[in-house]
Amino acid sequence: MEKKHIVHKNDNVYIDLDNGHKYALRDIKNGENIIKYGFPIGHATEDIAEGEHVHSHNVKTNLSDISEYSYKFIGTLVEKVPTSRTIKAYVRKNGDIGIRNEIFIVNTVGCINKTAQIIAEKCGVNYFSHPFGCSQLGGDMEITQKILAGLVKHPNAGGVLVLGLGCENNNIDEFKKVLGEVDGERVRFLNCQDCNDEIEEACSIIDELKSITSKDVRVDVPVSSLRIGLKCGGSDGYSGLTANPLVGSLCDKLVSHGGSCVLTEVPEMFGAEHLLMERCVSQDVFEKCVNMINNYKKYFMAHNQPIYENPSPGNKKGGITTLEEKSLGCVQKGGLSPVTDVITYGGEITKPGLTLMDGPGNDLVAVTNLACSGAHIVLFTTGRGTPFGGPVPTMKISTNSRLASKKTNWIDFDAGRLIDGESMSELTDELCESLLEIAEGKQTLNEKNGYKEISIFKDGVIL
Question: CA 311, CA 202: separation in Å to the nearest integer?
């Protein structure tokens, strides 16, 4: 191994700063805890010598199944800081703000994915392919409807065409019951089975929506109006050392100004949930958090799947060994902000501060979930890299500079500079300015590249 950095007083233990893996700073006995971020991330399954590689071949998780918790609010170091800072955004009829003024096609059923695609490409607007909306039952159908409703009502959309087939379970009349009140001028409905030429009629409706949205202008709104989704994917050993704490620092800054952040990926809270629970602002929020964690564990158990085998092959190759290590890195995206609410999958952000949201860690499902909760932008940290983007601007933040240099067509911001000695406060300010530029219209790379996708969680019966 190339000797790049001395980390031991005897000058005989080295780590490769490029690989994100762990090496023992001293002899570790079999059964002894392995410490990272100041907490155990598992225990040694054999004696580990000073300088030896510490990873899944000699470390095992300490975690078990359902846990009991007690509420003890420790407070928060994030204080309210008044600011006159504003951003230019679109103010919607209901008082909400949008940072984009796009037109969405939201199809109620997967049978017309191709029809939606043809219309979108012909008219130059956005559509979101998915396989659901028919042959689903009960709660599974409700989940699909909630996510699609979140897209329809998202303030980044200046106009929406809800495209139905006509015979599906999630037909337009049924979908409207879930959707509730909308701006009828900007949300239109079309059943394909009712038309002689559905593409021609859809394009005519979209032309009308374009005419309406063309009159919209950005105006000054408080920065506290922003809602930011927090996500990590393709993580590595540096995720919890660079990009995630940087995003956490930004989260704290936004929350201090009255803004809102939302954190999901419940399976990647296992092992670090106590750090979130002790920041819950009330007993009620704490109990919601406990239920969210334990109910998700029960979901794993109901399918006879291990709860704590979360790190993916890519995570492990990047240096992550156990779920505790992954989770302790993951939750840092929420900084030290007070946990003010816990919402269901497909729920809506309604409170400033840090909201926890039920849902899986799968990248496409989680980013869709965040977007449909009302997040205007998703900050996506990654050590391995990914090109995809969700329905809202998806800002990719690399954990290491090597990835940022290699994938300039994917990565919007390099947090790896923290390793090279740049300060957290300076990079927080820089990331904040980049975020506000995106809020005011600068495109993220996923937008420039045309990567806008959704995925919907499924846990039910299909007929």
Answer: 44
Question: Tens digit of pLDDT for each residue in 167-222?
Answer: 999 999 999 999 999 999 999 999 999 999 999 999 999 999 999 999 999 999 99
Q: Where are the alpha helices (DSSP H) in 72-169?
A: 113-123, 138-152
- Looking at residue 85, its amino acid is R
Token pair in block for residue 353:
């501060």
Gap between the Cα atoms of 306 and 197, Å rounded: 51
In eight-state DSSP terms, residue 357 is E
pLDDT at 8 over 80: no
Whose structure tokens read 């809506």?
348
With beta carbons less than 8 A apart as the criterion, state whether 156 and 100 touch: yes
Measured CA to CA, the distance from residue 93 to residue 373 in angstroms comes to: 18
Instruction: Indicate the residue type of 145.
Output: Q
Residue 441 vs residues 132, 143, 226: alpha-carbon distances, Å: 32, 31, 14
The closest of 355, 356, 463, 455 to 143, measured between CA atoms, is 455
- Residue 450 is given by DSSP the state T
The pLDDT value recorded for residue 322 is 77
Task: Tokens 């964690």: give the residue.
Answer: 293
